[in-house]
Amino acid sequence: MGDQAEKLREIMQNQHDSLKNSNSLKNNNSLKNNNSLGNDSFTNHYVRRNTRIIAVSSGKGGVGKTNIAINLALAYAQLGKKVVVMDADLGLANVNVVLGIIPRYNLYHLIRKQKKMSEIIQDTNYGIKIVAGASGFSKIANLSDDERKNIISELSELSLADILIIDTGAGVSNNVLSFIAASDDALIVTTPEPTAITDAYGIIKIIATEIDNINIGLKLIVNKVKTVTEGKRVAERVINIAGQFLNLKIDYLGSIYDDILVHTSVVRQKPFLLVDPKSKASICIKHIAGRLENIEYKEGSGISGFLKKLFTKK
């Protein structure tokens, strides 16, 4: 696991170095001819820092992992970042389903070496790009080491992104652990349900014991909470147990309210951050993006709030 993580970071760095060298010798047209992420502003904009790779995972399904990955990507895009979401749930992929997109190609074609990464990247109408996973192919849900290494090598094609969010499958397969090991940050999603809490600790324990030389930022998100206090209580429970028995530091990123809007947006196949940017769930996801970037998110009060403050006597 450690070797694959080092390999990914090395090839992403090499890709950036090669871009720097080409930029010093050529004008911006050289980037337009580079088809890594398509001929648009995504490639024409040179990234001045390494791509940050964030894996979003969970111990069990049904906790809202994919929804969080997509809406977090949109929150990053609203911060001016170039973002790619890769659906690495190789057996039951659904990033494209949540977005209402039918991709022509997906990771199945990459794994079978029928297409390159640059050929399966999909534009969206939301300011982000996606790499669709594959559903209904049980064989690719359990990749060989060579197949996993091939995917990791192809990830260098995404090095022009500021942020690469990898939506892993739920559970603790070798595929999931490989993507987590190769990431800069691993966001573990859980809910207040006892089974979800147990499974979240389970995946954290396996990460601690199976991944050599852990050099990733492990972070916890508690989804579907009724109150902020409930989220903190769940997080403290997981973090304290992990610290006590695994000697592992986990950061609490925050919670997301159990908002009816989330269900509505899934049915509409449109991210909740766009359906209602001021909803409870949307504000929560913006706060989480802010914490990841070490900036403070502050919701504006709008024109009405401005006028109220302006004419209210002190």
What secondary-structure arrangement, pairings included, does this model have?
Blueprint: H1 2-25, H2 29-33, H3 41-44, E1 52-58, H4 65-78, E2 83-88, H5 95-99, H6 107-111, H7 117-120, E3 121-123, E4 129-131, H8 145-154, E5 163-168, H9 174-181, E6 185-190, H10 194-210, E7 217-225, H11 228-246, E8 251-257, H12 260-268, H13 272-275, H14 280-292, H15 302-311
Parallel strand pairs: 1-5, 1-6, 2-4, 2-5, 6-7, 7-8
Antiparallel strand pairs: 3-4
Question: What does this protein structure show overall?
Answer:
It is a single chain. By secondary structure, the protein is α/β, with parallel strands linked by helices. Helix content is 48%, strand content 15%. The chain is built from 15 helices and 8 strands. It has an 8-stranded mixed β-sheet with strand order 3-4-2-5-1-6-7-8, sandwiched between helices. Helix 4 (65-78) packs across helix 14. The longest helix is centred in the first third of the chain and has 24 residues, at 2-25. It is globular and about 65 Å long. It starts with a helix and ends with a helix. Mean pLDDT is 82; it is low at 22-36 and 38-49.
